[in-house]
Amino acid sequence: MEFAFDATTRDLMERMNAFMDEVVYPAEPTAHEQIQRNYAEDSWEIPPVIEDLKAEAKKRGLWNFFLAGHPDQGGLTNLQYAPLAEISGRSIQLAPPAINCAAPDTGNMEVLSMFGTDEQKKQWLEPLLAGEIRSAFAMTEPDVASSDATNIELSIVRDGDEYVINGRKWWITGAMNPNCKVFIVMGKTDPTAERHRQQSMILVPRDTPGLEVVRGMHVMGFHDRDHGGHAELRFTDVRVPASNLIGNEGEGFAVAQARLGPGRIHHCMRSIGVAERAVQMMCERASERVAFGKPIADQGVVRDWIAESRVKLEQLRLLTLKTAWLMDTVGNKGAHTEIQAIKIATPQTVEWILDKAIQVHGAGGLSQDFPLAEMFAGIRTLRFADGPDEVHKNSLARAELKKYR
Ligand SMILES: Cc1cc2nc3c(=O)[nH]c(=O)nc-3n(C[C@H](O)[C@H](O)[C@H](O)COP(=O)(O)OP(=O)(O)OC[C@H]3O[C@@H](n4cnc5c(N)ncnc54)[C@H](O)[C@@H]3O)c2cc1C
């Protein structure tokens, strides 16, 4: 294992840290105000300050790091990207979109770059890479247990030069944002085929007749209005050209698998940044306030939380770096077990750290005056997003048992 950061990474880390200090952190109060206004006015527009941050990030050459294998577009290796994604996670609402490295667009851009036709790339990938539009990925359905993607029921039926789409989706991240211009939709083209060959993926532009954005879902009371929420969608006789299919009929499951490996580790990298911010806040708050005659930081139990947080964080970071290094050296398939391990470990560890940071803040930690409660809700969702913990544990245990049977 060789995790030492190379000169390119060290240079980018320095520039990224400068961008955070000079531009991103100072923009947080404005963003908070704009997001609160969105709640009050029931608007799903992305806070305008993010456009300013994007322009500045682009100018500084901090753009599209996630696109492994495409250095011409700014893409880095997974190991190079890991510390940069972590730094962006310290301001989780602002920095990832500022550098055009936010989910779900990153996964969608990977899909288009791997499986898209020249025409699809021109129409959708180019504006996504330029940060001009955003996109969403629609797989989960309200009516079936969607952790098992073979359950998906939305139908995609060929009719001449078109496909006709009918069905429902929910939890579609980013879809409330009016600038989310295209959906990658997974459905069934052949329900009679072998279980993993029934599904296909298709591009559906937002303005297609019959596509209805029904409502935004709430996450423990938060709407995630900073990044376009999570929408319920209804498709009623939605017609798109046959050329909108991604890959061939029956390849949807394979495309979904290819999409999820990098996406899962990117969440982990950013979540480590979330946890670092929480530790910083915990230490600062504990040092500022006095209870029962001494600073809260001098209470043994608080020191225990701070020490445990540091130990857990270092363990998490090392496993993330090992996974990134494996993805770069033996490929996403070869790193499958580690991707699952880090996907399982990260949310539960970061939840633990956030819980302690909230406790140190007293009741204020649960309130809108600090970002901790919203960060907690966001991290909690990662135990479902990209598949629930239990599914990953099952699969990891299966691989482990295989060694001894
Ligand atoms: C904030 C957020 C954003 C999301 N964004 C998107 C998005 O952009 N696009 C999208 O398509 N989806 C998205 N999702 C949906 C997410 O991918 C699904 O919630 C997830 O795949 C689980 O599917 P489900 O909710 O239907 O749970 P179900 O499949 O109904 O599972 C329920 C529970 O059953 C248990 N279970 C299931 N399988 C097993 C097993 N093999 N072993 C043991 N227990 C098991 C688990 O405890 C699981 O939590 C998002 C979810 C959230 C919360």
Can you summarize this structure?
This protein has 405 residues and is an alpha+beta fold. The chain has helices at 7-41, 49-59, 78-89, 95-98, 105-115, 118-129, 252-288, 300-334, 336-360, 372-381, 389-402, and strands at 134-138, 155-159, 162-173, 180-188, 199-205, 211-216, 230-241, 245-246, 290-291, 294-295. The chain has 3 domains: 7-129, Butyryl-Coa Dehydrogenase, subunit A, domain 1; 134-250, Butyryl-CoA Dehydrogenase, subunit A, domain 2 (Beta Barrel); 253-402, Butyryl-CoA Dehydrogenase, subunit A, domain 3, CATH 1.20.140.10.
Characterise the protein shown here.
By secondary structure, the protein is of the alpha+beta class. It folds into 3 domains: 7-129, Orthogonal Bundle (Butyryl-Coa Dehydrogenase, subunit A, domain 1), CATH 1.10.540.10; 134-250, Butyryl-CoA Dehydrogenase, subunit A, domain 2 (Beta Barrel), CATH 2.40.110.10; 253-402, Up-down Bundle (Butyryl-CoA Dehydrogenase, subunit A, domain 3). The protein has 11 helices and 10 strands. The strands form 3 sheets. It has a 4-stranded mixed beta sheet with strand order 1-4-5-8. A 4-stranded antiparallel beta sheet has the order 2-3-7-6, with no helix packed on it. Helix 1 (7-41) runs antiparallel to helix 2 and helix 1 runs parallel beside helix 3 (78-89). The chain is globular and about 80 Å long. The model has no long low-confidence stretch (mean pLDDT 96). Flavin-adenine dinucleotide binds at residues 104, 137-140, 145-147, 171-173, 219, 230, 381, 384-385, 387-388, 390-391, 394.
